[in-house]
Specification:
Elements (H helix, E strand, L loop, with lengths): L1 E6 L9 H12 L5 E5 L5 H15 L3 E4 L10 H14 L3 E3 L6 E2 L4 E5 L19 H4 L8 H29 L2 E5 L10 E2 L2 E2 L5 H4 L2 H13 L4 E6 L6 E6 L2 E5 L11 E5 L1
Parallel strand pairs: 1-2, 2-3, 3-4, 6-7, 7-10, 10-12
Antiparallel strand pairs: 1-13, 5-6, 8-9, 11-12
The chain binds fe (ii) ion (2 copies).
One fe (ii) ion binds next to loops.
């Protein structure tokens, strides 16, 4: 058995330094073996600092993906490069985009990828606009129409990675956890306590990832998949198939919290 602490959408850039330190110290004292972070830890100018602090204070394996806000005030390319370098220097940090199948126990594996709201769910014509296209360098150059082709590419990148690593994990492990930022199914997507509306879903769901997960888990009814995600800040659990469930985490800016403690066999 391994004891897991799941965190999401901590947005540490909205937290006073003393409060952030106290929160990280409280995590270090928790009787858990592994931490999982499903994105939006901070914003790009201080993301490396926040991850380094976390790595140094907690001193346990930390598996994470990046969320949309982690790229704010920089570019996807620069953040990815910096985080890749950081993980080479900090051996207890693992960015799931660059990891294959991580064994948590002889029965359970972890896989993951950032994911992205890719426009495959909901009503594209009425889709909300987000700060992403003002704050993330690569997204500032697109108009409303071409933005969705770029978001589609990002979603497809996540789906291709997940197809490879989940396919690999299913060969060996009975139980699999999957860490991602953006909910992969409309059914796992809430906003302010209600199912997210058609205008929210294009930006709140990674449909390409959802299609891959649905297909692979339909083909492997004897395996079990638990998806851990965030992004919408509104919590819930969705049972997509008898062997595929999604936990979506809740969050409030300025109030970092433990999302869930759980065991895996
Ligand atoms: Fe967030
Ligand atoms: Fe997000």
């Amino acid at each position: 058995m391994r004891r897991i602490c799941w965190l999401t959408d901590l947005h540490l850039n909205f937290v006073a330094p003393r409060q952030a330190s106290a929160f990280l110290d409280s995590l270090q004292q928790m009787p858990v073996d592994v931490l999982m972070v499903s994105g939006d830890l901070s914003e790009a100018p201080r993301l490396q600092l926040d991850l380094s602090e976390m790595s140094a204070r907690i001193r346990k394996p930390i598996y994470f993906v990046l969320g949309s806000h982690d790229y704010y005030r920089s570019s996807i390319a620069a953040v990815r490069w910096n985080i890749s370098q950081l993980c080479q220097r900090m051996p207890n940090l693992t960015w799931m985009n660059e990891a294959g199948v991580v064994e948590l126990s002889p029965e359970t594996a972890l896989v993951g990828h950032d994911g992205w709201g890719d426009g495959l769910a909901g009503n594209l014509e009425e889709a909300v606009q987000l700060q992403d296209e003002l704050q993330i360098e690569e997204l500032t150059t697109y108009d409303r129409h071409s933005l969705f082709s770029k978001l589609g590419e990002l979603g497809q990148e996540a789906a291709s990675h997940l197809e490879t690593v989940l396919g690999e994990a299913l060969k060996k492990y009975r139980n699999i956890c999957l860490l991602t930022h953006v909910p992969p199914f409309a059914e796992s997507c809430w906003y302010e306590g209600e199912p997210a509306g058609e205008h929210m879903l294009p930006r709140f769901t990674c449909g390409a990832a959802g299609r891959v997960l649905y297909r692979l888990m339909s083909e492997h009814p004897d395996r079990k998949l638990t998806v851990l995600c965030g992004h919408t800040h509104s919590p819930g659990e969705a049972i997509i198939l008898p062997n595929l469930r999604v936990w979506t985490g809740g969050a409030k800016y300025g109030q970092p919290q433990v999302q869930r403690l759980f065991w895996v066999p």
